[in-house]
Amino acid sequence: MSTLTSAVTAFDVDRIREDFPVLKQKIHGKPLVYLDNAATSQKPQSVIDAIVKFYTVDCANIHRGVHELSQRSTAAYEETRAKTKRFLNARSKSELIFVRGTTEGINLVTFSWGRTNIREGDEIVIAGLEHHSNIVPWQILCEDKGAKLRIIPIDDRGELILEEYQKLLGPRTRMVAVGHVSNALGTINPVRQIVEMAHGVGALTLVDGAQAVPHMKVDVQALDADFYAFSGHKVCGPTGIGVLYGKARLLNAMPPYQGGGDMIRTVTFEKTTYNDLPYKFEAGTPDIAGGIGLGAALDYLMHLGMDKIAAYEHELLLYGTEALSHIPGLRMIGTAREKAAVLSFVIEGIHPHDIGTLLDRQGIAVRTGHHCAQPVMDRYQVPATTRASLAFYNTTAEIDALADGLKKVKEIFS
Amino acid sequence: MVHDLYQETILDHSKRPRNCHPMEDANRRAEGYNPLCGDKLKLYLKMENDVVKDVSFEGSGCAISTASASLMTESLKGKSKPEALKLLEKFHDLLTTDSPVTQELGKLVVFCGVRDYPARVKCATLAWHTLKSALNGADEEPVSTE
Predict the structure, then answer these.
(1) Left if phi > 0, otherwise alpha if psi is -120 to 50, otherwise beta: which for A14?
(2) Distance of alpha carbon A28 from alpha carbon A36, whole angstroms
(3) Contact residues on chain B for A413, CB-CB shorter than 8 A
(4) C-alpha pair distances (Å), A260 with each of A111, A116, A256, A286, B64
(5) Residue numbers in A near B120 (CB within 8 A)
(6) How far apart are CA B39 and CA B142, in angstroms?
(7) Phi and psi at residue A53, in whole multiples of 5°?
């Protein structure tokens, strides 16, 4: 195995693992090796504590009461917006809308911006790497409006072919919606360049940041994306909460997404006026506990430092790529030069679901299947892959366990 | 380790599936699809007087689904339609209930370990869902496990 570099030794992963109670268990008698982080991340104790504290001592609805508990819960919930502003380097808290997750963030844009701005014959560009959540909402919009969905092709490494992307851009292009990092392959897309090229033809951009935000420093102002969405549960936060960032001038011009309480200023039966940003897009009682939990998660990640996380995970990726390269018959799917710590692979003659079940019996959790990215599977002509997706609390020893586990799988099927 | 699931018979049938070929003179055909894992299966039946004269399959899938299809074809030859449907019901019970394992299932009992792996039940039943569709003559639309 390759020698450990400074990023691995400087990062006190054993200390960090102590923060994650779920990691301290055995599965089928073996220590849990959790390598399904692209599906969801595990939660540190501080996030769990924040949620418990909310329900134990601060529970009240937000934005309404004048009583103490309501003021506490409102302050804690809104504090997460301020933390998110720092986390993404947004200009203003009003540009950050709480949603259920990345999927709802994208649907908010297709519903609100899309239905107002897309006309027959308009074109929307997405990439061949997209998760279904950044395909289907645009398809629904295109079908409704008679618009056309165009796809940036990928090469054999799993990188977007930018020359082909350039050719897709034209006067009818209204929106370019791309994933920042591919969940199925780990490819890190050159989002800054993609955004600049889209703006060059007057198109807007949406970036699906679900797989990027947990693994690298994201600066929405530097990227200049018009919309950027991520999910709380993939950044060590709870499920049910996520964030949509949007430029204020665009959000101001967009109609509401859902109607209800909290998103209004005045209501009469004749006429309703809407609340200011971001509340205009936040109808009904939100996931308050989830929002507060997300705040604790962002604190946790910012304390560790996203740059340090990225450097450590990159070393894990190199270590894992090397370790798996020694397994005969294993083919890595996705070999982009810029890649997050995702190891997606197939093994000749053994179906991913059998690999997944056999690894599970050794305590190793991986994802098998199409990873909600069926077009990517079609591109590589495989029905499914096995995917080990790493996080900063994983270790080189766990990668060794994966490699050993795969050798045992091969023995059974030999 | 997991020899309760991947028993020797299952591994053998997954590596060397029996009756795995297209059948030109089949008079019933059906396609099965498991969207969860992308497994696809084509089933061919030659029925004479409501009796399975011959049966074969083609497809790509995991060890459990391939072995299940292979062992199913071996169990079906010579069975009448009602007998085949009865066997399907018994097989389904074997995978999804705690009912005692009956000898009527013959070799198919090797799949009893699947009941401890709820996520894999659909793999083991894909061929059987497809069989039901073929027996009932519902051509065209592929049957889905979802």
Answers:
(1) alpha
(2) 17
(3) 11, 15, 63
(4) 16, 20, 10, 11, 49
(5) 353, 357
(6) 12
(7) -65, -45
C-alpha distances out from residue A302 to A77, A83, A187, Å: 18, 9, 24
Q: Best mutation site among B41, B62, B115, B120 for testing chain A: the one with the most A CBs within 10 Å?
A: B62
What are the tens digits of pLDDT across the range B59-102?
A: 888 999 999 999 999 999 999 999 999 999 999 999 998 888 77
Dist CA A370 CA B137 (whole Å)? 31
Task: DSSP for A339-364, please give it.
Answer: B-SEEEEEETTB-HHHHHHHHHTTTE
Angstrom distance (rounded) from CA B56 to CA A282: 56
Determine the pLDDT at residue B36.
Answer: 73
Residues A308-364: tens digit of each pLDDT: 999 999 999 999 999 999 999 999 999 999 999 999 999 999 999 999 999 999 999
Distance linking the first and last C-alpha atoms of chain B:
30
Cβ-contact A205, A109 below 8 angstroms? no
Model confidence at A226: pLDDT above 60: yes
Only one residue has tokens 């569709």, namely B133
Report, in angstroms and rounded to the nearest whole number, the Rg of chain A calculated over CA atoms: 22
**How many whole angstroms separate alpha carbon A277 and alpha carbon A255?**
11
Place of tokens 């890649």: A339
Q: Is A37 exposed, middle or buried (0-12, 13-18, 19+ CB in 10 A)?
A: buried
pLDDT over 70, % of chain B = 92
Cβ neighbours around A269 below 10 Å, total: 5
B5 contacts A351? CB cut-off 8 A: no
Is residue A372 flagged as an active site residue? Answer: yes
Interface contact flag, B120 A357, Cβ < 8 Å: yes
Residue with tokens 């450990």: A4
**Which phi and psi (to 5°) does residue A51 adopt?**
-70, -45
Q: Which residue of A has its CA nearest to B3?
A: A412
Report the residue from B5, B11, B36 with minimal CB separation from A357: B5
Query: Does residue A278 have a cis bond before it (omega within 30 degrees)?
Result: yes
Q: Which residue of B has its CA nearest to A382?
A: B38
The answer to whether the Cβ–Cβ distance between B38 and A370 falls below 8 Å is: yes
Residue written as token pair 């009527």: B104
Tell me which chain A residues have a C-beta less than 8 angstroms from the C-beta of B36. 369
pTM (2 d.p.): 0.93
Helix (H) or strand (E) holding A399: helix A396-412
A357 in reach of chain B (CB within 8 A): yes
ipTM of the complex: 0.87
